[in-house]
Structure formats: C-alpha cells, structure tokens
Amino acid sequence: MRSTLLRFSFFFLMCSPFAWATPGNNPSNTHEYQLANGLKLIVRQDNRAPTVAHMVWYRAGSIDEVNGRTGVAHVLEHMMFKGTDKVKSGEFSRMVAAVGGRENAFTSRDYTAYFQQVEKSKLDEVMKLEADRMSNLNFDDAEFLKEIQVVMEERRLRTEDNPNGLLYESLMATAYMSSPYRYPVIGWMNDLENMQASDARDWYRSWYAPNNATVVITGDVDPQKILQAVEKYYGVASAKTLPVRKPQLEPIQKGIKRVQVKAPAENAQLAMAWKVPKLEPGKLDNPEPYALELLAAVLDGYDNARLNRALVKEQRVVNDVGVGYDMISRGPELFLINVTMAKGKTVEQAESSIRKALNEIAKNGILDSELKRIKVRILSDQIYKRDSIFGQAMEIGSTEMAGFSWRDIDVMLQKMETISPAQVQAVAKKYLVDDGLTIGVLDPQQRKSSEMKKGVQ
Fold it and tell me: Peptidase M16 N-terminal domain: which residues (predicted)?
C-alpha cells in the first residue's frame, strides 16, 4: 500500500509555478473529440518515439455491482478475450502479438480498461480488434464455465491464500456500510460459484456502449487521422440507454470499528483506515484533498519519512509501513496506514506508535523544509512517468473515469503547489480521529502440517 500521489504528475518546481510544463504536459498536444454515438476520444500527440498506446476505458467497475453479482465486472474482463463473430476465442491476444504489440486489461472499483501498445503503423489493426469486441462479443456457456474456474482460482491465490488480501478485504467490508466499495473487485467466492454466463452477458449489454466509453490514444500520431480511424471503427457502434446509477451515499461513521482476521501468516499486521474527503469534480479549490495527499507523503513518501523512520528504523516495532490515499475516485475515500509487526512486537505497540506520530503532526505540524523536500522528490519521480507513452494514457484515462477532465490535471498540480504546512497539519487534526476510524488486525495462525508439506513440495 502506498500513497497515490503518483496518480498525478507533480511537475512543479519551487522557484516557479509554471516551471513543471513538459512536452507531455502541453495542452496543445492533447485533443478531445466526441463522436455522434457518445464515445469520447482523447488523443495526446507525443512524437518522441514511433510507438502508440491505445486504451479503451469503460466507466463500469465493482462500484456498479449489486449483492449476489459481485465480481461480474472482472469476470467480463476475462470473457472479452473469448471471441466475437469475426475473432475466435484466444485469437485476440495472438493477433496483437503477431504485430509486435503487447496488450492486457484490468478492472478496478471505478472502471474496466483494455490496452494495446504497438508500433504506430499497426494502430489501425488493434483499433479494429478492440472496436469489434465493443459491440460483437460472442462467447458460449462452455467458455464461461471454464473461465469462471480461472477467476475463482485467481481469488484463492490473491485473497483466500493471501493474509494481506484477507485483511484488506475484511477492512473494506467493515469500514463501508452502504458503498459498493465494500465489495472486493474480484467478487465474493459464493457469488462467483453461483454466477451464470447470462450475468456476464447482461453486464456487457448494460455497460459496454460507446456512450459509456473513453478511448485514449497517446504517442506518435496525427490527431486528425486518428479521429478519422476512430470514427471508422468505433463510430458504427450504437449508443445505449445506460442503467440508472444510484448514489449509495455512505452514512457518517459515529465511532471506531474493529475487525480481526485469523489466517496462516508469519507476522501480525495492523491496518488503520480513516474516512476522509476526496476531490469533487467542479470543486478543485478545496485544499483538503491536496493536503491529505501531501500528508500521506510526509508519513510514507520516501525512505526517511516519518512513519518509516520512527517505527522501522528507530523503534523497530514493525518491519514495513504503507500509507495510501486516492485523491480522486467515484466513491468515498479512506486514508490507510498498514504495518507488519516485527518479531516479538505487538499490534498494540504499533498502534500506539502510529498514534504518537499522528498526534505529533496534529499538535506541532510539519516543517516547511520537510514539505518542500517532498515536493522536489515527487518531481524527480514523475519526470520518468511523463516520459512514458503508456503512463500518459493511464493518467488521462483514470482521471476521466473519476469524473474529471484531463484538463483538470494541471489545475490540480497548481493547487497542490499552494498547500502549506499548516493545511497539512489541519487535515491530520480534523480527520485522523477515532470517530471515522476502522482498525483491522491480522492474527497470525500456525500453518497446518498438510499446508507446510505442500509448501515444501
């Protein structure tokens, strides 16, 4: 777990508010179009290398799921590779590889995305493939029955046999009462066991439409030629009436919550999650989300950050520290701190040390030099990201899916630059309190002899 400051490119220098502009961060290089069927196209021209990243983002993730059908967004991601009337099952990946490209897909709480990265002359070929499965996915029940077993095994490996996964899953289900963020993206095992091919087809028919999709293309391209190609391939898809999205607002938490998870593990773990605000579209002036991002970096943004220095190096009460916060998202947000106990140390000791570090910031604040150091470090980290064709596409797409415009990114960066140590102190004091806190503890259990023998083999 780590801060998602890296979601944004913090190209700002202390000497000038506009010194962070780079070739990949020039609005004149980025073009936005809207097709007649509702599909949004964003093209960023970057001619430094003859490659192109092609991504299709659907604004449909686990946040759109309902009880009894959790995990269906991720299952459909798998099924999208199972063929159309023109492309047989398994052929999609083979055809991308045949033109020297790489491809994959991923599902999150907020969206599902598919991508290919190819040499620029091969863009039309992968665009044609992706546009085909936007409208013409066609898989049979037998393919579904095979693939759902793959997904269930993925859940076993990532969650049920993974103490970290079990703790995080229980923490989310405890912290959230009504928000679908309480569901695991991969779904509950019982829902996967009872899922039918018709559930995946219904999801596809409901959400996979051009008016619920954003195509992002970055790299060595001519925007006008890209628009013509996108209209040719994607423009034939028909818009749909999308399901009504219910707000499902999270009730105000009125006291500390705790959950304990017993699982085979070497060391105990502690996770602390506070309800905190996020940035809202159209309200970019709110300083609190920016201050929370910087607070995450103060605590865990570099090797000698406060929690790592105090808990790992000095007190040696934990082996590692992680801090996480998403400033932008479709649902409610948490400020997370996760630690793994050192041998002979207890979760009570770790919780006490974390509280002491947080109280120190709430009481005495942080140094101006400390905040400047963090910003400069972020700058150096992000130059490499902006140098990546794929990284630029990821930044644009994830921002759009959260309900913001790619144009907002630079505004966010400028707002971030203005945050003061006093504002960081203020959010620590206001939000990292017990009334909005959920605590998860992993109680390590000794592995059964059969599991130990299996591990040796």
Answer: 43-186
